[in-house]
TrEMBL record:
It comes from the Bacteria. This is Periplasmic protein.
Length: 448
């Protein structure tokens, strides 16, 4: 048999050589379809890797997850509904953080009804804030009051004044009302004296379109006399020093002036002004003249405005408080416009008890409904909200406060006393401090 091994080898060599030659042919197609290029070494060839377009495009950094606020177990935290226009808690926290370069005290205006009358709750909250951030004094005090002997944070005496309050049934001129919903008309020699914790500044707020002579005595010393020329709009006259007692006297005037308040303030740190009005729903704040509000914003700038109302709104059998929410929406927006940089905090109504059909005390169902509307008010006006009812302990908490030893609330099961005020002030203080801590953590996280 003839050996064909050589012929087979030559045929294979010829085929391989032909395939190598085909590799160098230009691209071809049959019927419009490209033929695959012949490449015997494709499995072992090391191809030159060209960069793809996607490899050269700069990629954006990974999306950083948003900072999520937390709340301690057992704490009822502030809910902040602020948008880009501000008025949430951010400005207040910024003011506290930068208080040493602010050039004035950080100021809080705390508005409310009889729940905070006589500086209950607010007096203890002021002390806690001043212990933490510095400051002294009691702040803004209306010229006269019906509860001079009841308020513990300042001793006040006065004489020679015609007092006018928004709660008066007649002869109240709303065009003259101040932040405290009062105004006062002096007779010659009218005076007001405050004695309290040592402060650095005492001021007198008034309106006098004609010249007036005012004397001020600090710590019983010889009075300083100021002859002040007439001028339209809100005026502020101040004295400085180490002030434990201050007495302001209106000695003479050419035309009848209007007075509002005297103050005992720090020069730095923090101060809280109590603006309580018995029987108020908060709607009366919308009646303060806009020019006067703007003048207060200039002369006594506030960093936080607190609105705590509701005791005089909750009514048996009524669960729809849309009318109240709408009315207070106008008030909140009015205050936001007058104090464009201030944070605004709405504090929900506290617990209030009524008797059920069996004579047992229980939380008024209407209170719970009102709180939801107050929360909606905060959300719609883009401010902050704190649920004091939940912070007190919720259902039946007022009964527990009345029955505690010592008692923290009165037997009307509506109003707290000084013990209860200190208790709630402590809760609110811790809530504010935790809110500030979270705010600072968020800022640091977002700056990374």
């Amino acid at each position: 048999m003839k050996n064909k091994l050589l012929a087979t080898f030559l045929l294979a060599l010829l085929v391989v050589s032909g395939l190598f030659v085909l590799h160098f042919l230009p691209p071809m197609s049959v019927g419009g379809k490209p033929l695959r290029k012949v490449d015997l070494l494709s499995d072992i060839r090391v191809d030159k890797v060209l960069p793809a377009d996607s490899d050269t495009l700069p990629l954006p950094p990974p999306v950083k997850p948003a900072f999520v606020d937390t709340c301690k177990d057992g704490m009822v935290c502030i809910e902040d509904y602020a948008d880009s226009t501000g008025h949430g808690m951010a400005h207040f926290y910024e003011a506290l953080a930068g208080r040493q370069t602010l050039g004035r005290p950080v100021r809080i205006a705390y508005f409310g009804d009889s729940f905070i009358e006589a500086d209950i709750l607010t007096g203890d909250l002021r002390k806690m804030l001043q212990k933490r951030f510095g400051g002294s004094g009691v702040g803004y005090v209306p010229v006269t009051t019906r509860i001079a002997g009841f308020r513990r944070s300042v001793r006040q005496s006065f004489g020679g004044w015609g007092s006018h309050s928004i709660t008066d049934s007649v002869r109240f001129d709303r065009s003259l009302q101040d932040l405290s919903n009062h105004y006062f008309i002096p007779s010659p020699g009218a005076f007001v004296e405050l004695k309290g914790d040592t402060s650095s500044v005492s001021s007198c707020y008034f309106v006098a379109s004609d010249s007036i002579c005012i004397a001020v005595s600090v710590n019983g010393a010889e009075p300083q006399r100021f002859r002040v020329a007439g001028q339209e709009g809100l005026r502020k006259l101040s004295v400085n020093g180490r002030i434990g007692t201050v007495r302001w006297t209106v000695e003479r005037f050419d035309s009848i002036p209007v007075f509002y308040a005297v103050t005992m303030d720090p020069s730095e740190g923090i101060i809280l002004d109590n603006f309580s009005t018995r029987g108020s729903s908060g709607q009366q704040l919308g009646g303060i003249p806009a020019p006067l509000l703007r003048q207060y914003a200039s002369l006594r700038t506030y960093d936080l405005i607190v609105l705590q109302y509701g005791l005089n709104v909750a009514s048996g059998g009524l669960t729809n408080y849309a009318y109240y929410k709408d009315a207070m929406t106008r008030v909140v927006n009015y205050l936001k416009q007058a104090f464009p940089q201030a944070s605004v905090l709405i504090v929900g109504v506290g617990d209030r008890e009524s008797k059920d059909e069996n004579g047992n005390l229980r939380t008024m169902p209407e209170v719970k409904s009102l709180i939801r509307y107050q929360q909606l008010l905060a959300a719609e006006t883009k401010v902050a909200f704190w649920n004091m009812y939940d912070a007190m302990g919720g259902e039946g908490s007022m009964v527990r406060m009345v029955e505690s030893k010592p008692a923290m609330a009165n037997y009307d099961y509506t109003h707290i006393n000084f013990h209860g005020g200190k208790h709630l002030a402590g809760i609110l203080f811790e809530t504010l401090m935790y809110g500030m801590e979270q705010y600072e953590k968020r800022k640091a996280y977002e700056a990374e």
